[in-house]
Automatic annotation (TrEMBL):
Beta-alanine binds at residue 78. It comes from Pseudonocardia halophobica. Homodimer. HAMAP family: PanC. The keyword Ligase applies. The gene is panC. This is Pantothenate synthetase.
Length: 294
């Protein structure tokens, strides 16, 4: 691979410019906006797969003269002490190739020191929803996630930010933070990209063994079959999904919940709901969710 050409503000790879320093990225992004470009941010932790690529393609399809910006940062604040921070995959060169293939113009790859220099201990608090569902077994996870997302929003200053529905509670909390704290941008959710058998794509799927991989599909099958009986009401949805989950003894289900699609509170009769599941299979923790019309 040829060495990337240095430019004044980072290094260029084809049309792609990579910055690791927030102080360098911010003026570039501001200048692009001042020139009439629409900055669309796709925040990621890297190890880019087809789900991330779909977010990037979605970014490019936003109306206007779009600059797709991807951030790649494995955020230590959102990992618990016994989680996979150290072994989380970080294939940066492959990720940059994927970004170039998808027509990304700017990539932001800060180091932990760039994002959290010594003494940087101010945090966003996720509120009650932050302690629910994923927040139960992962205390502080959403505070850490919202803190980095708020920083990314300030550093990049996007017009639009895209998040996957795959992480539905994250999407809901980011929308809520933007509303509650008056961030001047719009947050858009993108439907989950799945393997042909239904498994939601995730950077963590690489942890699944050959034996676990086919078993993991039970998660999405349970959600699909549950959603299919929504005409019979919320109890039927949960009962059907639970029955499917119970067919796979390797799955340790942490929660299966039907919630209101906007607030993640109690589902409303006749409203849009979301069926969400979290389960462990061996050492790997997987989450998934689907829309349900009640
Ligand atoms: P991550 O790198 O896991 O933090 O994910 C970065 C973004 O990609 C988040 O907004 C995720 O919700 C989204 N994402 C992850 N997996 C998928 C998927 N299978 N389909 C759509 N979006 C996804």
């Amino acid at each position: 691979m040829t060495a990337p050409a240095r430019t004044r503000n980072g290094y260029a790879r084809g049309r792609l410019t990579v910055h690791d320093d927030p102080a360098k990225l911010t003026p570039v992004s501001r200048a692009l906006r001042a020139a009439g470009r629409k900055v669309v941010l796709v925040p990621t932790m890297g190890a880019l797969h087809e789900g991330h690529r779909e977010l990037i393609r979605h970014a490019r399809s936003v109306p206007g003269n779009v600059v797709p910006v991807v951030s790649i940062f494995v955020n230590p604040l959102q990992f618990g002490p016994n989680e996979d921070l150290e072994r989380y995959p970080r294939p940066l060169e492959r990720d940059l190739d994927a970004c170039r293939e998808e027509g990304v113009e700017l990539v932001f790859t800060p180091s932990v020191d760039h994002m959290y220099p010594p003494g940087s201990d101010t945090r966003i608090v996720a509120g009650a929803l932050g302690a629910d569902l994923e927040g139960g077994p992962r205390p502080g996870h959403f505070d850490g996630m919202l803190t980095v997302v708020a920083k990314l929003f300030h550093i990049v200053g996007p017009d639009v930010a895209l998040f996957g529905e795959k992480d539905y509670q994250q999407l809901t909390l980011v929308k809520k933070m933007v509303r509650d704290l008056d961030f001047p941008l719009s947050v858009v959710g993108v439907p989950t990209v799945r393997e042909p058998d239904g498994l939601a794509l995730s950077s963590r799927n690489v942890y699944l063994s050959a034996d676990e991989r086919p078993r993991a599909v039970t998660l999405s099958r349970a959600l699909r079959e549950g959603a299919a009986v929504s005409a019979h009401g919320p109890a039927a949805v949960l009962e059907r999904a639970r029955a499917v989950l119970d067919t796979e003894p390797a799955l340790q289900v942490e929660y299966l919940e039907l919630r209101d699609a906007d607030t993640l509170g109690e589902p409303v009769d006749g409203g849009r709901a979301r069926l969400l599941v979290a389960a462990r299979i061996g050492a790997t923790r997987l989450i998934d969710n689907v829309p349900v019309q009640l």
